[in-house]
């Protein structure tokens, strides 16, 4: 008996390679069919018809897994989501590690699609959450702002080098200055566009205003964090946010060897970049929780950058909690004997915890009766089918 269909999609700029597999009660994965279509609306229509052809005979869940490939996968993900499929988008590094773990030495588009289909069949991958349009707009604008700022820095460095040259060229210097003025105007226009997008959504505007009460945080820095995290809809708790941003601490220890601990930096670098200047401003405020945190870390380690990074992480979590609680920042909050981060997290995720608690109690009851999900493959969290929509069980 098959438990579910798994469709693996390897997306490139011109085409989409697809593979459909099944997994049975014995956890055996079998390839049913493969195909290749163009990365266009016409190709997407053929892909959906092909999936329907191979899945219509059995009423079991259908999951679609595709690897994030720049922007080429986005249109297909939206199309399949509109069609009612349960879509999972896999990070390239995770897909690569999985394909290596199952012994796939060769690499091409068809092999990758087959591997993604097997990955979707064997694992219960997280469902892709479609971002709100306002967050997509903010992401494009904030990334453009950062790109312009980087270009300005490059041009200013080139201008400085040309001016200090023994044989500087006046015409080149004039062009560089003109280009810098143009970029500055574009940066200002982009910043205005970001503010207009925020003002267009009343709820978003109120939340951003509350978060900006933190000294050092500007509309731009807050908008960047919100846009890159899809309004924090990607996370169930603050630990996932910390890991996503690359602030999670990794340890290097084996036997008698004890290496240095450091942040992973494997997350979203745009968040870390935008929080650097706000952290320096926050540190400059005497008597605040940010200044005290910086001093504690610096006294313990003797490394200023570790203190700055700790403040960046603190600012990120402050944005997260002010967003969730929808209230302005209280500088004396911790001095009033209020909850720490861990207690706040428990309160914010109480509903999620209670739901899991109910599920765990049911599992324990079933285990006593000899009906544990591990023993009964039909009880695996594979989802339910309802008019092509996959309703995922918690």
Automatic annotation (TrEMBL):
Residues 349-361 have a biased composition (Basic and acidic residues). Residues 209-294 form the Transposase IS116/IS110/IS902 C-terminal domain. Residues 7-161 form the Transposase IS110-like N-terminal domain. One of its GO terms (biological process) is DNA transposition. One of its GO terms (molecular function) is DNA binding. PANTHER family: TRANSPOSASE, TRANSPOSASE FOR INSERTION SEQUENCE ELEMENT IS1111A. InterPro entries: Transp_IS110-like_N, Transpos_IS110, Transposase_20. Residues 349-381 are annotated as: Disordered. This is IS110 family transposase. Pfam families: DEDD_Tnp_IS110, Transposase_20. It comes from Psychroflexus maritimus.
